[in-house]
Amino acid sequence: xxxxxxxxxxxxxxxxxxxxxxxxxxxxxxxxxxxxxxxxxxxxxxxxxxxxxxxxxxxxxxxxxxxxxxxxxxxxxxxxxxxxxxxxxxxxxxxxxxxxxxxxxxxxxxxxxxxxxxxxxxxxxxxxxxxxxxxxxxxxxxxxxxxxxxxxxxxxxxxxxxxxxxxxxxxxxxxx
Length: 176
Description:
mainly alpha, Arc Repressor Mutant, subunit A, Rna Polymerase Sigma Factor, Chain: A, disordered N terminus, 0% strand, globular, single chain
């Protein structure tokens, strides 16, 4: 869980914050964007922005502030990425990759594909609730919405993922 209360504003204190939160922040960014290199870039940008506010004494809970910064940074990067993909698909046609041979990897790929195909807000809510294991209230705070909105976004996101997974299930109709 990403949470740490600020104890100082010097660079050494922030190095402790960075070391404590970097790995989890990268994991969150990866789950939101699906690309490890882009996740690293997102987290770097988020830490740079958090440091500015933190050094001014404006951040009391670094973990919550960093999660929000990662979500915001991911949104910005994804908007550009979607535009680039749309333009690339106009030029090159079908961009689907080759399915993985290993069944376990294929199952993970199916879940990832389903997660990447649900709307952005639903994906954010699902990732924060189930991959980051945050409460509905914490998720609502990070997303800047009500707890009820989180509940409905998670419910709709999971339902849509289940539809997508059922559509890719083997002939028996059973999702592995």
